[in-house]
Amino acid sequence: MQSPVFLDHLPDFEKIGGDKPARYRWQRNQSLLQLLLDSETIWTKRCACPACGEQSTNCKSFSKALLDFQRCTKCNSIFAQRVPTQEKLDQLRIEFIEDGPPEKDREFEFISLLNWVSITEARIERSLDHVVDIRFSSQMAGWKETTERLSHNRTWDFIDLSPDTCDFTDLSAALSQSSPKAVLLPVELDRVANPEMLLNAIKKSCPKQTVLFIASSCADGLEYEILGADSPSFVPLDRLTVFSISGLQSLCNKVGLSVLECSTPGRLDAVILDTHFKSEENSNIPFWSGFFKDADNNRLRDLQILLQRSLKSGILRFVAET
Amino acid sequence: MKLRTAIIGYGKMGKIRHKAMESHGGFDVVVACDTAIDPSATVPMVTRPSDVYDFAPDVVVCSVPNIFIPDLVCTALSHGKHVFCEKPPGRNSSDVQKMITAERAAGGSVLKFGFNHRVHDAIEEAQKLLSAGTMGDLYFMRGVYGKAGGPDYAKNWRNDPEQSGGGILIDQGIHMLDLFQMFAGNFCDIQSFVQRKFWTEVPVEDNAFALMKTPQGVVASLHSSATQWQHTFRLELYLRNGFISVDGILSASGSYGAEVLNIAINRLDSSGNPSPNPELQEIRFTQDLSWNKEVAEFYDAVVHGKPIKCGTSQQALDVMQLVEAIYQADPEWSQTLRTSATEVTG
Question: Residue B259, Cα to own-chain centre: how many angstroms?
């Protein structure tokens, strides 16, 4: 299994620390609050870690935006103790996307995904000329257009976000019809009620040797390790399961997927921690406050690269095969 | 099927090959030969190469100084043995021609040369990217391969042109040239500077610079150095859609660092032009599997009749001709070589 490092410009903290991301977090947390107050919402309690299956009684608990979470003592994944139905989650996301301003300036992220597919295709020496995108095009305006403009050697099918059943009946049907060589899953795994169900649905609906490109938040990331629930990227409705590397590896094994590659290409840990430790209230934390006090962009970049090389940044990517 | 194996030249390389063959499991090393009996050897040893044939080997591994290579390889082939031979393949292209003639005369015997850099993981990954067409047409290549001389540099047989055929270029730079030819084919236009700067009492070059072009217009620049005080391997391939580089190479000494493959595909701006500094994908390799892969390919060729892809006699000839062309392309150096040859022949 290979572990690539993705080196790129360090983003500005405004990307996650500015007004727009803050507004996004408030709105998502408002949706969560409404969900919690709605007596008709059906919640499913998670008795075991959705990644490795460890009993949740052994896990450490904490709370974020009134939703209880646990960190698995076995695999380090973080997960909500209870989740609404998949249909409800999907409805909320659709409403949110429809009401909110379209995402802009994601070209670098899109190109990174396209290059990831191209380089993997060469590495495995197998044509991935037909790819199915799962719901990313609904989340990210401009993604479809980018594939049309820049992905010339493959055809794409886009499965839009729509309210689905807990076992992803509609998604399975669409995948079966499409018969892809590869499946792109950049924003789903941490947002769905049952990640195992989703991976199972994909595995059962795709031909053998279909290559899955999975991205998700990463609980092993320094951002989550240090800030935990205080991390600005920890938006509960978007992070119902924050996988660790070993957690996602366990889940892939359980579902019967072979993992070909894993990486943590996150680029925000250093800038998030920099802002956190430079604030007045956190200016006396041993080691870290001093480390970040005089940190310039070069130091932050060096730290971020070290985190990536150590598989300790806040985003993970897996390439797996059915 | 186990192949009875004789190793001629049981120094560092011979022992590396022995270990790789043991690890493969398809070889039974029945005898080793060197100038002196190694008391720690785990196999029977002899001191005369001709004695290895008393052990009825199927294959002969030739890990000896360059001067002895052609005769030992030709003899082994004439005995109907399959031969695995270290690089460089002798001292010059005439040596390789001799071995090719013997190979043809031997009929079905396999002859493979140990250009192991071709099968290093990072290099294989780079080759896959080229083959898949992901990166587009190859424009140019840069290669730096260098070390800080070596222990007993002046006394080492590698730096005695009578025994080795040349200096750092034929010893180490040849690997980079072999990779250039693997990626781009043969070169037709060659310019060079060959120098002796630090070890001036030694009659071989300690630096060679070459600028070469293929008939298709792919340009390559090489710097092979024995005064690269920080051990360095760096290969860069620039292509239409981006670039690939390999930094470091896993070696027996470990002094060239981990093997790091960097891949970048250009990001195009709205007008379709590449923006600078694209995202770089870096992959580290920490385990040198090249010895095992070479041995496995050799086994498959001997036992299953599969063709040799890396280290054929034609590749050996091509790269030796390129080495010679680089020596010849520097008028001062080629004059030095001619003078030396005249002095030797009287």
Answer: 17
Picking from B134, B267, B268, the nearest residue to A119 by CB comes out as B134
Residue pair A316/A230 in contact by the 8 Å Cβ criterion: no
| Secondary structure (DSSP) of A101-122 | PPP---HHHHHHHHHHHHHHHH
Q: How many domains does chain A have?
A: 1
> What is the full per-residue pLDDT of chain B (346 aa) written as tens digits?
999 999 999 999 999 999 999 999 999 999 999 999 999 999 999 999 999 999 999 999 999 999 999 999 999 999 999 999 999 999 999 999 999 999 999 989 999 999 999 999 999 999 999 999 999 999 999 999 999 998 888 889 999 999 999 999 999 999 999 999 999 999 999 999 999 999 999 999 999 999 999 999 999 999 999 999 999 999 999 999 999 999 999 998 889 999 999 999 999 887 889 999 999 999 999 999 999 999 999 999 999 999 999 999 999 999 999 999 999 999 999 988 778 767 666 5
Report if residue B16 sits inside a domain.
Answer: yes
Contacts of residue B265 in chain A, CB cutoff 8 Å? 111, 115, 118-119
Q: How far is A109 from chain B (nearest CA, A)?
A: 10
Contact A3/B280, CB-based, under 8 Å?
Answer: no
Closest Cβ–Cβ partner in A7, A107, A121 for B280: A7
The DSSP bridge pattern shows strands A155-159 and A130-134 to be parallel
Give the rounded distance of the alpha carbon of B230 from its chain centre.
21
**Distance from the A280 Cα atom to the nearest Cα atom in chain B, whole angstroms:** 35
CA distances to B213, B222, B234 from B147, in Å: 26, 14, 12
Interface test mutation site (partner A, options B135, B268, B283, max chain A beta carbons within 10 A): B283
Range of the domain at B102: 3-115+292-311
- Residue B261 distance to chain A (closest CA, Å): 9
Domain count, chain B: 1
Chain A residues near residue B129 by CB distance under 8 angstroms: 119, 122-123
pLDDT, one tens digit per residue, over B194-243 is: 999 999 999 999 999 999 999 999 999 999 999 999 999 999 999 999 99
Q: Which two tokens stand for residue B189?
A: 């236009």
In a domain, B201, yes or no: no
* Partner-chain contact A123 B128, CB within 8 Å: yes
Which range marks the domain in which residue A79 is found? Answer: 14-266
The alpha helices in chain A, defined as continuous H runs, are: 14-17, 19-37, 86-99, 107-124, 136-139, 143-150, 169-178, 195-205, 222-227, 245-255, 269-278, 288-293, 297-309
- Choose among A4, A125, A150: nearest Cβ to B282: A4
Q: How confident is the model at residue A20 (pLDDT cuts 50, 70, 90)?
A: confident
Q: Which of A112, A121, A122 sits opposite B279 (nearest CB)?
A: A112
Provide the CATH number for the domain around residue A28: 3.40.50.150
> Where residue B21 sits, what CATH number does that domain have?
3.40.50.720
Looking at the complex, does the CB of residue A45 fall below 8 Å from at least one CB of chain B?
Answer: no
Indicate whether A20 belongs to any domain. Answer: yes
Per-residue pLDDT tens over the stretch A156-212? 999 999 988 889 999 999 999 999 999 999 999 999 999 999 999 999 999 999 999
